[in-house]
Design a protein that fits this description.
Blueprint: H1 2-9, H2 15-33, H3 39-50, H4 55-79, H5 91-100, H6 104-138, H7 142-153, H8 178-205
Helix pairs in contact: 2-4, 3-4, 4-5, 4-6, 5-6, 7-8
Length: about 210
């Protein structure tokens, strides 16, 4: 585990990579602050440029743009009640009222600390558990692939838009409404199609 942390920190000592990290962070912040853009757009824009870089430098550049862009969306969410990224939508609920009370600096500080702490903690967890998850992935066989494919293929989006209000909770002694029967039939049909698709996908992986 200690070796993984040393390998993780070693590239930062390289001046070129550290400069790429700073430029990517600055570029990601600018994209995150501008509503309508974001880390995904930034990655797409900078992707051709990464073709000329070394693999490690390209990955660090894209990662820094993504992380900084995700955080940058909180700046406009707090100051002007407009999230720069979809991830910062919930920040408008608490950050903008604080800014209206004259506590914008406090809200920005909390967003910065939360983003930094979450990012560092997630990287540490990844470094610790990535070898374990890799070993588990090597143990995947045909039953596991079949279960995973079935889970992904048989999902049916049942939400408020597809289930009418009248097809809510059904008392035990009452008949099933026609709306609920239609939804259940669609779900059953989707599950059968998903099971067949997963079975075919499993055969192709043999």
């Amino acid at each position: 585990m200690t070796e993984n942390f040393l390998y993780m920190l070693a590239p930062i000592m390289n001046g070129k990579i550290f400069l790429i990290l700073l430029l990517g962070t600055l570029f990601g912040l600018i994209l995150g602050v501008l509503p309508g853009l974001g880390p995904t757009t930034g990655g797409a824009l900078i992707l051709p440029f990464t073709m000329t870089l070394e693999p490690l430098s390209a990955i660090i550049l894209l990662t820094s743009i993504y992380c900084a862009g995700t955080y940058g969306g909180a700046i406009t969410a707090i100051l002007i009640n407009t999230p720069g990224t979809p991830a910062a939508a919930a920040t408008c609920l608490d950050g903008y009222p604080l800014a209206q009370k004259g506590e914008a600096a406090r809200a920005l500080g909390m967003a910065t600390f939360g983003s930094a702490f979450g990012g560092i903690f997630s990287v540490i967890v990844l470094v610790l558990f990535a070898p374990i998850l890799a070993n588990i992935a090597y143990e995947f066989g045909q039953p596991e692939y079949f279960a995973l494919d079935h889970l992904l293929a048989s999902e049916y989006p049942i939400n408020e838009a597809t289930v009418p209000p009248s097809a809510g909770k059904i008392p035990i002694n009452e008949p099933i409404p026609e709306e609920r029967k239609i939804v259940l039939k669609q779900y059953l049909k989707s599950s059968l199609v998903g099971s067949f698709t997963a079975f075919i996908a499993t055969l192709l992986k043999i």
